[in-house]
TrEMBL record:
Residues 1-82 form the BLUF domain. Signal peptide: none annotated. This is BLUF domain-containing protein.
Length: 129
């Protein structure tokens, strides 16, 4: 993936928040400078529609679905989309994502989020447990 500049990341975040709010999608987007890990929560048809737009986005390649299925409740109910940007910048583009990590109670999702950070060499978010 081509590196996105801070303004480009900001624009991406705005797009996500705007669109997701309209269709009641919540989630989080992590970014480590070269990869993204995103979580989308919402009605299956809304998630599918957003995901097909994301898949077609030429700003990234190699999009993979790591997990898909019903959930009992949202893990990021208060968030349209948060972004944890590169390295040890809790501020990032949308540093407000950090507190929302504390709401993650789903074990599988928690592991995915944690692995992404550790793989990036930046275990900067204090996830529960
Ligand atoms: C890593 C990544 C994650 C994205 N996540 C979302 C998202 O959650 N919701 C969304 O509406 N668009 C997301 N987008 C942007 C979409 O791919 C698309 O550009 C945007 O929805 C605007 O689509 P439109 O030009 O068809 O209106 C993401 C893009 C990237 C590169």
């Amino acid at each position: 993936m081509a590196r996105l500049s801070a303004p480009e990341l900001g624009r991406l975040l705005e797009q996500c928040r705007f669109h997701n709010q309209q269709v009641n999608i919540t989630g989080v987007l992590l970014h480590d400078g070269s990869r993204f890990l995103g979580v989308l929560e919402g009605a299956p048809e809304a998630v599918a529609a957003v995901f097909s737009r994301i898949e077609a986005d030429c700003r990234h390649t190699g999009v993979q679905v790591l997990a898909d299925g019903p959930i009992s409740h949202r893990q990021f109910a208060c968030w349209t989309m948060g972004l944890v940007d590169d390295v040890s910048q809790p501020g990032g583009v949308g540093g407000e994502a950090i507190p929302c990590m504390h709401t993650v109670t789903d074990a599988g999702l928690w592991l995915l989020l944690r692995e992404f950070q550790v793989g990036a060499g930046h275990p900067l978010l204090s996830l529960p447990g």
